[in-house]
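Please, structure for the following, as tokens.
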Amino acid sequence: MQFKKYVAEFIGTFVLVLFGCGSAATAGGELGYLGIAMAFGLSIVALAYAIGPISGCHVNPAVSLAMLVSRKLSVKDFIAYVVAQVAGAVAGSALLYAIIDSTGKAITSLGQNGFGEGYGIGITAPMAVVVEIVLTFVFVYTILGVTSESGNGRVAGLVIGLTLAFVHILGIGLTGTSVNPARSFGPAFLLGGEAWSELWVFVTAPFLGALLAAAAYRLLNVRKA
């Protein structure tokens, strides 16, 4: 049973990266920010109802960290979830790489995150950290809230997916929107170069945002016995 959860997280992150990052890399100009945001958001909506009953549909190490510190996930499961999520992200990026490579065109984008001159509006590294902390905070805080009541089960996937879409609407022009270390790792791992050198922002900031969200939720929402 435990193994099924890890496979579900692998598949979920694979799908998120392939369809979300793939939309940005292959049709970003046609779709625009809203279209790319919806690709990520709708992926989560579909996955929430498909694998949510199996693993909870974290597909994001930052979400898993928030669940760990909220005592909704064991240390063993946290480690296994992160490994599965990173592997799924790399696999999704690898398939996207193969798809683009089959056209014979140079591969310059796999939907990687970034900042600075030539990326989005060109924000600085410190501001990219702030942006990713805030975006992740909003996303993870929403997840903690909507999943706290069992009666929300039918709408939770929709709420979470739409929240991911709306943080992307702001974040795409700033950092490409990570809020997910695995989603950032996959493209950066295959592209290397600047994407890899800037990866630290998209690993540390989402984790910090998730920790802040978990702390805020515990402070503001959890009733004391």
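Residues 37 and 166 are 7 Å apart (CA to CA). The first helix runs from residue 2 to 55.
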